[in-house]
UniProtKB/TrEMBL annotation:
Domain of life of the native organism: Bacteria
Species, as recorded: Amycolatopsis mongoliensis
SUPFAM superfamilies cross-referenced by the UniProt entry: Putative DNA-binding domain
Domain Helix-turn-helix as annotated: residue spans: 5-55
Pfam families for this protein: HTH_17
Signal sequence extent: none
Name of the molecule in the record: Helix-turn-helix domain-containing protein
Amino acid sequence: MNDSLLSIEDLSAYLKIPVNTLYQWRKTGKGPAGFRAGKYVRYRSSDVDAWITEQAAC
């Protein structure tokens, strides 16, 4: 199990975008796939990388 999990704050720092933008993207179905782990939102690093690759192809 080598796929690290990112918090929404980690992802915000990685993408250099505001946390509120990530919350908006979650509400509208944009952005990388995330999931809830209890009360927390987490993102698999592989899903984030795949989403970045997809965005670059557009």
